[in-house]
Amino acid sequence: MFDFSFSELMVVMVVALIVIGPERLPKVARTLGHLWGRAQRYVNGVKADIERDMAIEEYRQLQQKIQAEASGLEQSVKQATLTADRQVQQINEAVAKLSSPDQTIQSDQTPSMPPPAAEPSSVPANKSAN
Question: I need a surface site. Which of 30, 77, 78, 122 has the fewest CB within 10 A?
Answer without folding.
Answer: 122
